[in-house]
Amino acid sequence: KACPNCCFCALFHFTVVPVILKALTYDEKRGSCSVGSNVRDAACYVCWAFARAYDPSELIPFINQISSALVIAAVFDRDVNCRRAASAAFQENVGRQGTFPHGIDILTAADYFAVGNRVNCYLTISVYIAGFPEYTQPMIDHLVNMKINHWDSVIRELSTKALHNLTPRAPEYMANVVLPRLLPLSVGTDLHTRHGAILACAEITHALCKLAEENNRSVTYYFNEKSLEGLKQIHQEVCRKGLGGELMRPAVCTLIEKLSLSKMPFRGDPIIGGWQWLINDSLRSLPLVSSTARQHIKESAVSALAALCNEYYINEKGEADPALQDELVTRYISGLQNTEEMIRCGFSLALGALPRFLLKGRLQQVLEGLKKATIISPEDVSFAQARRDALIAIAKVCQTVGVKGEGSQEEYVCKDNVTQIYATLLNGVTDYTTDSRGDVGGWVRKAAMTSLMEVTLLLVQNETELINANICKQIMCWLAQQAAEKIDKFRAHAGSVFLTLLHFDRPPVPHIPHREELERIFPRSETETLNWNASSEAFPRITQLLGLPTYQYYVLLGLSVSVGGLTETTVRK
């Protein structure tokens, strides 16, 4: 803090410039947090003082270093106060010195308010600034050297996504310098560095392959044999050293996903079997990890599975190998009856992620397996999350296979299986299971409502005649009941789905009871403004449905649940 005063008193010597630049990135972990934000903030103040204390000619030798350091701090610092301090210091130097490269252009994009959003800084502003050659390499080097091994996992993940976005700005540098530097780090000993390096390798590889494809080049244009082997060995080395649970499993799954999306030439390679084993093992291991990490691991594994299947399991005829198809489908369906709830969740979503060519000929078996996973039995009454994910998977499967009214029930949603699908989804709306966690059936009801909407809109846009009047009546009545209930978030979701189906017009959903009256009660113009979360707004509207015979019983049922609730405000409304 004494440095700015020294600047104004002309006691400052420029040998401390390297120290100030180092202070701009100082960050040291202490326990579960870090120290250093106050040091970085003070360093920005010193740089601000430079602009006021010295003539432009005196700072010329250090302009590129100072400007790059301030840009990096303004865009990539973890703390918003430091980003804003760096932006203010940069602005002061641009205004008073006038020698910072592209100063006005950068200030327009990275002003005091723009740098307030960290995600925007990493993923958008950084790409714009990297378009100026003076800043491209310093920004990339900072992410590789300081951020992919950061103690905060959010910063590590943001940094790797930023590297993906920055790759088109310097593809040769990424391929020839950055990637070879990251590959050894991805199999190193430090967990945080290994985690960040694996994600960075995945993102950079994907970006390079997309760039090559856009320029009509081979996907391996930017890679030499050593890099390709290094990318394959990451999975083997990580498995040998240990997956590290909550960090390494999703990281390696992301690597598998990105390499598959990159269309790397690994078809027929034994590594594909290793990748499939890791995905399956990650889904089987869900009960062993903490509840906070399960969702991330599950989503990463399912995304990796979808990408892997689409790239490496389809032949030239667009079909799957029968033995492989049988193994995958059978394995996942058998997992739906596992005694562990989380394994059921993982395998349900895995079935929902399978591409069409793997579901062809096995659709009825998959739907039947998912239907059984939604049924409540005395042994698994508390498995609400498994039932939720099974309902989500049913909608995903329907969207994947598509609709064909006269088609085979083993390949399409058609007249022979649509009733069964709707019966399963409508049964989910009746789940009112409660346990020590509260109304866990609400998770199932919410998933059922979403799936009903998705399947209905799919049918409306393809084969409207598959929706009969009775099914549509049941959907709208059950949604009306949910829109009259006590828990705000479930009421809001039901109301949103109800209005989506009511006002959908491409083409309209057929057979909606009392459509004209509903459109008067819920005008299209108020769809976005009606706050279903507020009971004072929702109940006066939904009670108007009591005058419509079709909805009367269901709305009364929903209101009865609300009146019997524990919340005094809801009871009064």
From TrEMBL:
Transmembrane segments: none
Domain Tubulin-folding cofactor D ARM repeats: 15-104
Keywords per UniProt: Chaperone, Signal
Cellular component, GO annotation: lateral plasma membrane
Residues spanning the signal sequence: 1-23
Source taxon at top rank: Eukaryota
InterPro entries found in the cross-reference section: ARM-like, ARM-type_fold, ARM_TBCD_2nd, TBCD, TBCD_C
MF-aspect GO terms: beta-tubulin binding; GTPase activator activity
GO biological process: adherens junction assembly; bicellular tight junction assembly; microtubule cytoskeleton organization; post-chaperonin tubulin folding pathway; tubulin complex assembly
Domain Tubulin-folding cofactor D C-terminal: residue ranges: 473-572
Keyword Glycoprotein: no
Protein family membership: Belongs to the TBCD family.
PANTHER family: BETA-TUBULIN COFACTOR D (PTHR12658), TUBULIN-SPECIFIC CHAPERONE D (PTHR12658:SF0)
The protein's name in its UniProt record: Tubulin-specific chaperone D
The species this protein was found in: Cairina moschata
